[in-house]
Design a protein that fits this description.
It contains 21 helices and 13 strands. The protein is α+β, with helices and mostly antiparallel strands and about 575 residues long. It has four domains: about 90 residues, Roll (Ubiquitin-like (UB roll)), CATH 3.10.20; about 130 residues, no CATH class; about 70 residues, no CATH class; about 200 residues, no CATH class. Keywords: Membrane, Transmembrane, Transmembrane helix.
């Protein structure tokens, strides 16, 4: 026996909804006819359709389907519509007339997910009153200008409260613990009252990009439900399920074997077009492999391959072939052969042209302009930050002394741009040595390659001189063999960074936060999804949380503007 709610289409007979307990589809129709006073009609002239949800409008013909749908809708009752057999379903006339106030609860939205994610069954709406009462003080603080200094802590606390509230509701009322159910409830939460709660979860970064926090909240709710399920199994005396870490580890090993990189090579994805606009375009109409080879040879015969209109023309005309060879280089050490065929890519002028076309922006101008706008403010904040700390990173005092001397000597703000990246490496507690090394003035080329060996074949900047402020030359070394000269330390940083996009590398773990800073703030590369760093946790933010913290702390610092 099942208990359902039946409503009737159109005029005639009784009106409203009726509770019906029956054991079959025919039994439901028969009892519905009786309650709606349709006794003069034969049972076979009516059919039952689902009133709402994913199966809305579908006719129920089999008893097994009736039982399954009734079970799936629990703890709610399944609502059916009784309509004439020959009448087609129309959405506008058959919705159930249940009432729910938008002020008190939110109904489910389609999950923000891939089409492969199954939609959850019909679930009860989420009451909002208790949650709003908890979050209202935080929402008021968010509207203040400037916000309170502890607003980040309040936002985190509010996000935790929201996650706990939603997960407890799903656990106690919904009892459907799938990932898509979590997505649906979080989507409903985000759409409530025209996005009233969205600012609580937003993660902004220097005003450039916004991570809505949707994925992070969905994952938090899902993890909380899994914790409750595990706890429930233990309390019931069941054996806890084993973690799948071992299997994941084996899968990762299998993936690594499929990629033919040598163990010491930098991380290189099979297709890494993250942030690129023209990653691997095809040949233009009229071009062939033979014509491209002729142009490559013409380019290599030019006496000065660094710049000039003819060089730029041939460079752009052969861009598609350059990209094809770079993308197809496997293992990544075979890029040495690609660069020997395209030696102009070792000229910083031509390299900038290639990278600018790849990223669809003037990389040098964007980089230097962004440094001019941001470097001094961030350096001031970092100096203020370390003044509040008892323990400071090794070498920080020396670096700040060199900065003071350079500012006094040059009487400009340019030294702030030079020192910004080294200071950020120390702030994020990352490895300076994997990004750049300073060696003596009279170091030989062999000394340069020896210093570069510490990078594990990733790109690295080698500075010959006393410091980054007092250097004879700057070189970027790749694969411990390819050497590219840069006219300054700042341009060496730019070239170093662009290597990760031009050659499709992932950021090394030892400096990934600082490199993401370069990407998002200095080069203004902010794709809405994806990342060049490893994201091992499902739902982890597109933007590194350390950058978000830096951005928010910088905003608070700038509201007071203490002197440097």
């Amino acid at each position: 026996m099942v208990l359902v709610v039946v409503t009737k289409d159109g005029g005639g007979g009784g009106a409203g909804k009726k509770f019906i307990s029956a054991s079959s589809v025919e039994d439901v129709v028969s009892k519905a006819k009786e309650k709606f006073q349709l006794l003069d009609e034969v049972t076979s002239s009516y059919k039952l359709c689902v009133a709402s949800g994913e199966a809305e409008g579908l006719e129920i013909e089999e008893d097994e389907i009736l039982m399954e749908l009734t079970e799936a809708r629990k703890p709610e009752l399944l609502t059916l519509v009784l309509i004439p057999k020959d009448q087609l379903w129309t959405t506008t006339t058959h919705h159930s007339s249940g009432s729910s106030s938008a002020d008190d609860e939110v109904t489910l939205q389609e999950p923000i997910a891939s089409p492969q994610t199954p939609a959850p069954p019909k679930c009860p709406p989420l009451p909002m009153g208790p949650l709003l009462e908890t979050l209202d003080p935080i929402l008021k603080d968010l509207k203040m200008d400037p916000p309170p200094r502890n607003i980040l802590l309040k936002k985190r606390r509010g996000a935790r409260e929201a996650s706990k509230y939603v997960s407890d509701f799903i656990w106690k009322r919904v009892r459907n613990y799938t990932f898509s159910t979590c997505q649906s409830y979080v989507s409903a939460l985000f759409s409530y009252d025209d996005g009233l709660l969205k600012p609580l979860f937003h993660r902004s970064y220097v005003g450039l990009v916004h991570d809505t926090g949707f994925e992070a909240l969905v994952t938090s709710v899902y993890n909380a439900l899994n914790h409750l399920r595990s706890k429930s199994r233990i309390e019931a005396g069941e054996t806890p399920r084993k973690r799948r870490a071992a299997r994941s580890s084996r899968d990762n090993m299998a993936d690594e074997e499929m990629v033919d990189d040598v163990e010491s090579d930098p991380k290189h994805r099979k297709i890494d077009d993250y942030g690129c606009v023209r990653h691997n375009p095809g040949l233009k109409p009229g071009e062939t492999s033979a014509s491209q080879e002729q142009k490559r040879l013409a380019l290599s015969r030019l006496s000065d391959i660094s710049e000039g209109p003819e060089v730029e023309k041939l460079l752009m005309e052969t861009y598609a072939t350059q990209r094809s060879e770079i993308v197809g280089a496997r293992p990544i050490s075979s890029l040495k052969g690609v660069l020997s065929r395209w030696p102009h890519l070792l000229s910083h002028h031509c390299f900038y042209k290639h990278a600018s076309h790849l990223l669809d922006k003037d990389v040098l101008d964007t980089f230097l302009t962004s440094l001019g706008h941001n470097a001094k403010d961030i350096c001031q904040y970092l100096n203020h930050f370390w003044k509040q700390r008892v323990n400071v990173p090794p070498g920080l005092d020396k670096l700040l002394d060199q900065l003071d001397a350079a500012v006094s000597l040059e009487r400009s703000d340019a030294p702030f741009s030079v020192v910004l990246i080294p200071l950020l490496l120390k702030y994020f507690k990352e490895d300076t040595a994997i990004l750049f090394q300073v060696i003596k003035f009279n170091a030989t080329d062999a000394d340069v390659l020896a210093a570069a060996s510490k990078s594990n074949f990733n790109p690295i900047i080698i500075v010959r001189g006393n410091s980054i402020f007092d250097a004879e030359d700057h070189q970027v070394v790749f694969l411990n063999a390819v050497v590219m000269s840069a006219p300054s330390f700042l341009e060496a940083i730019l070239i170093y960074f662009l290597f990760y996009f031009v050659y499709g590398l992932k950021y090394p773990k030892e400096s990934q936060v600082t490199l993401e800073f370069c990407q998002r703030t200095l080069l203004q590369i902010n794709p809405p999804t994806g990342a060049k760093r490893d994201r091992t946790r499902r739902g982890s933010s597109t933007i590194n949380s350390k950058l978000i913290t830096l951005s928010n702390n910088l905003k608070l610092f700038q509201s007071t503007r203490p002197s440097f």
